[in-house]
Amino acid sequence: MVRTGPGSGYDPVASLEPTATEIPVTGAAWLLPTAIWYEIIPPVGEPGWVNDSYIGLMGSTDDVTTLVHRMLGTPLADDDLLALGATIANAFLSDEGGGWIALVELPEPGSTTAVSSVTYDAIGVGDDSIKGYRLVVHATQDVAGGSYLMRSVEQTLVCLRGIDAEGFCV
């Protein structure tokens, strides 16, 4: 939610899609006891403020299918695509706890493609430069319309402070 001022008590002026990218930041920031707020220029409307808990800088993207198989075993399947995605996203959270996952993008409704995809963010991974990961889980459904079998997983870094020339968090 984009607000008229730096704080949740201010009125909303716009909302952004969870996958919105390349939103200009004016350079103004406001530190409150529980959060940092940044002034941005949304694609539609006047400049406004967003809580840094809900934004991140998108870094490099890699195929982490092999890593997921090592963490969770193979074959990895579930009768529900959203549950399969959530299981995978939870595996990327810190062992210390305190993180969360968020459903970012649902599968295309009525899609007739052989591969379905769901996107989750895993935020709070216990790293001082990485805020979390955006995970796109690709799966195929068995012929009888039953369980979804994981085919691949793409991981994009969500950075806290900045990104170097190779797309890694700094």
Describe the structure.
- The structure is a single chain.
- The chain is mostly beta strands and 170 residues long.
- It folds into 2 domains: 54 residues; 102 residues, Nuclear Transport Factor 2, Chain: A (Roll), CATH 3.10.450.
- 11% of the residues lie in helices and 41% in strands.
- It contains 2 helices and 11 strands; from the N terminus they run E-E-E-E-E-E-H-E-H-E-E-E-E.
- Strands 6, 7, 8, 9, 10 and 11 form a 6-stranded antiparallel beta sheet that branches. A 3-stranded antiparallel beta sheet has the order 3-4-5, with no helix packed on it. Strands 1-2 form a two-stranded antiparallel sheet.
- A hairpin with a 6-residue loop joins strand 9 and strand 10.
- The protein is globular and about 50 Å long.
- It starts with a strand and ends in an 11-residue tail after the last strand.
- The mean pLDDT is 89.
Key structural traits:
single chain, 170 residues, mainly beta, Nuclear Transport Factor 2, Chain: A, 2 helices, globular
Summarize the structure.
With 170 residues, the chain is mainly beta. It is 11% helix and 41% strand. The protein has helices at 65-72, 81-90; strands at residues 2-3, 12-14, 25-31, 36-40, 48-51, 57-63, 77-78, 100-105, 115-123, 130-141, 148-159.
